[in-house]
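User: Structure please.
Assistant: Input sequence and predicted structure:
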Amino acid sequence: MARKHRDPYDHLPREEEAPPPVPCWLCGRPTGETIVWHHPVPKSRGGRDVVPMHPICQQTLMANFTNSELQRHGMDVEMLLAHPNVRKFVDWVAKKDPDFTATTAKKQR
């Protein structure tokens, strides 16, 4: 009678495949370890929907738009990308690592 091969590690949890990274709402790059769930319409203006973003992408939006401007744009990312500072940032960050961080410009008001 043949012996059955028994796996000595069968009691340990098996590594599961990690889910594929979700793309950033603003720049479209895959997100890294840190994901910020951003409200395109600010919560103070009645926004409930959230979208995944890189922290640096969210900081750029906060530096370039007020809450009332974000409320007017709503979920329309193309309108946000039409802003010259945001377009310049997205073009610059396109080749960076998903977990890349840097200081962003202060609010310009």
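Strands lie at 36-38, 51-53.
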